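task queued by scheduler; priority normal; single chain, no ligands, no partner chains; default sampling; output format set to structure tokens
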Amino acid sequence: MTASPAWLYYAFGVVMIVVAAYGAVLLALGVSTRRPYGWDVDVAHAFMGVAMAGMFVSGWSLGPRDGWKLAFAGLAVWFLVRSARSIRRFGLHVPHESIHAVMSFAMLLMLWFVVAPVAGRSMSMGLASITRIDPGLTLVLAFLLLGSAVFTLASPVKGISHHGSRLQSAVRTTTGADAAPVLLSGIERVIAAPLLEDVSHVAMCIAMAFMLILMN
């Protein structure tokens, strides 16, 4: 594998920390305002951001790897169940939860096979040699993630990455049996802007796709 410049790994690491922090802020905002949708995506992005930063830069990893594996396995199952429920409720379609199931599975896969960060103390070594993982699988996952990034950017429905096309955005007042009113202040509307939510999702997809490609 041709080594990429060190600054690129650190740049991805910084972006992942920003995405993780943004997910944590959205989660706190959702709890404080009882926002009914997107909290599970916020949790996933916060976890993914921290875990990905540790993959890109040595010394930035937090917590035991087995704990992260368990967390992402649980998230993958959660999003698969939510995808099945969405299909049952709305009919045959591609639920937005499905891409988060793919992302959780990709995280589990990377944690299983990446044995050293790509920057930092092991900089001269680059990414550790990986022989057990199927290159075809990593490329398929990278393709799905990049496809999700393109679809999210091109979609006229902003916030679709967090809330789906069939649900109201969290920055609007929602009504109905499954929702409670959401009233946000001016700064809260900026923080939870659907466009920013989509940007965080796109950044995560690109970073994960890049890491998966590095694994080949």
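post-processing summary
- The first helix runs from residue 6 to 33.
- Residues 6-214 form one domain.
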